[in-house]
Amino acid sequence: MAETEQQSALEGAASVTFMVPKKEISMVPDMSKWKRSQAYADYMGFVLTLNEGVKGKNLTCEYKVSETVEKLLDLLETLDRWINETPPADQPSRFGNRAYRTWFAKLDQEAEALVAAVLPADRCAAAPEIAVYLKESVGNATRIDYGTGHEAAFAAFLCCLCKVGALRVDDQLAIVFKVFNRYLAVMRKLQKTYRMEPAGSQGVWGLDDFQFLPFIWGSSQFVDHPTLEPRHFIDERVVNEHHQDFMFLECIKFINEMKTGPFAEHSNQLWNISAVPSWSKVNQGLVRMYKAECMEKFPVIQHFKFGSLLSIQPGKP
After folding, report:
1. For the whole model, what pTM was predicted?
2. Predicted pLDDT at 11
3. Which of 39, 127, 250, 266 is the most buried (most CB within 10 A)?
4. Is the pLDDT of residue 2 over 60?
């Protein structure tokens, strides 16, 4: 992606009238409206810009950590602390612990204030709009489930922060390695603590029950790695040795902790990916798969909300 395109994907929204985002995709034929929208162009531009930014870099490399990034880490720390303060309830059913709803109600109440604390003073008017994406990013309180649509809402939340200038182009590495990584840790804790169901899970035919983006960005980290090839990630020794450096391996480690039985059976798609010869091929394939399996699937996109920052209006040609 050209530098100017990257710039516009990560910055903008100087003079916008903010609005509370709402759903616009209510029927399958509406999907063409989504694919033509400015929101789709901005969202995929954001994902691909970060994909390029993390290429060949590990989690422990040096990068700038801005004040906004620190504030986002504080926000995620607050969500984490609320989990500790909201223990699972005693209930007969194993899955979907209802204490999650208590945790979620707290976020529902506090989201705008949490977001306002992250924004520069002259951008506080954007808090009600951006807070919607934060609330959408932690799972569904009715079904007590979590899936790639919720993950997409968090990426949309970060994209909006870029569009209002709270995050900047030079925050790219910190966005993925610090903020998104911390978000994943909080989501894993939520999934484990409240035994959340996977939303719209495809079982063994899906890439993963809960996440997708860390596999894309994580595979980009490995591009041109001198020794680690795709075939190595199914080796538990490699995972245990290198997971602190690579997002992809952190995901595999979590799967290994949560699932029993042969890897090829419980995570068939990932098993197949381990046979791909190079990480750049893996990365390209995962981007294609993400578009087809998440971004172009009505059951995922029907929940996406559109406002002034991520607009349903047709994209600029």
Report:
1. 0.94
2. 46
3. 39
4. no
